[in-house]
C-alpha cells in the first residue's frame, strides 16, 4: 500500500505526465492508494499560488481527490512524529517539517512513501520509500 507525496500527485496533473507513472498508478488497486492531509495542504497551497488557480483546484477535485484516500495527522502519527523528530535531531539529520509529518503518517499506517524526494525520506529509520518519477 502506498502513500503518495506531493511531487507524485502534482506530476499527474502535468499536461504530459510520465507514462511509466500513469502505468504504475493504474496497476495499484484504488484501495491501496493514499495521500496525507499534509500533501492536500501543499497541493491546495500550490493551486492558490498559481495564476490558473481555478483550473488547478478543479483538477484536484476531479482527478486527484476521488482517486486517493486522505489520511489525517492523528494522535498515533503525532506520537510517531515526536519520536522520529527527536531521533533525527539527535543524529544530526533533521527532516523538513512537512516531510517528517508525511513519514510519520506512512509509518503509522504501514505504507510505502512514493516520492521523487527519496534522499530526504531515506533518513527516516524503517520507512519504505519508492521513486516512481525516476527515468526507467
Supply the key terms:
globular, Rossmann fold, 136 residues, single chain, 7 helices, alpha/beta
What would CATH call the homologous superfamily? 5'-nuclease
The DSSP helix count reads 7
Question: How large is the radius of gyration?
Answer: 15 Å
CATH topology, by name, is Rossmann fold
Number of domains: 1
Low-confidence blocks of residues: none
> What sequence of helices (H) and strands (E) makes up the elements?
EHHEHHEHHEHE
Outline, from the CA principal axes?
globular
Main sheet: strands, sense, barrel:
5 strands, parallel
Number of strands: 5
The rounded distance between the terminal residues' Cα atoms is 21 Å
Q: How are the strands ordered across the major sheet?
A: 3-2-1-4-5
**How much beta, percentage-wise?**
5-15%
Report on the structure:
Helix content is 54%, strand content 11%. It has 136 residues and is an alpha/beta fold. The chain has a single domain, classed as 5'-nuclease (Rossmann fold). It has a 5-stranded parallel beta sheet. Helix 3 packs antiparallel against helix 4 and helix 5 (75-90) packs across helix 6. It is globular, with a radius of gyration of 15 Å.
Strands, helices and their partners?
Blueprint lengths: L1 E3 L1 H7 L6 H9 L5 E4 H13 L3 H12 L4 E3 L3 H16 L6 H12 L3 E3 L3 H4 L7 E2 L6
Parallel strand pairs: 1-2, 1-4, 2-3, 4-5
Helix pairs in contact: 3-4, 5-6
Amino acid at each position: 500500500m502506498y502513500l503518495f507525496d506531493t511531487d507524485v500527485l502534482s506530476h499527474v496533473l502535468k499536461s504530459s505526465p510520465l507514462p511509466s507513472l500513469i502505468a504504475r498508478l493504474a496497476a495499484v488497486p484504488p484501495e491501496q492508494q493514499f495521500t496525507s492531509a499534509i500533501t492536500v495542504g501543499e497541493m491546495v497551497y500550490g493551486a492558490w499560488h498559481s495564476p490558473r488557480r481555478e483550473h488547478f483546484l478543479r483538477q484536484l477535485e476531479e482527478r486527484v481527490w476521488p482517486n486517493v484516500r486522505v489520511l489525517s495527522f492523528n494522535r498515533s502519527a503525532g506520537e510517531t512524529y515526536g519520536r522520529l523528530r527527536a531521533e533525527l535531531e539527535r543524529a544530526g539529520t533533521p527532516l523538513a517539517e512537512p516531510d517528517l509529518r508525511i513519514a510519520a503518517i506512512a509509518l503509522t499506517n504501514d505504507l510505502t512513501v512514493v516520492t521523487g524526494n527519496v534522499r530526504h525520506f531515506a533518513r527516516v529509520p524503517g520507512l519504505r520509500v519508492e521513486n516512481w518519477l525516476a527515468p526507467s
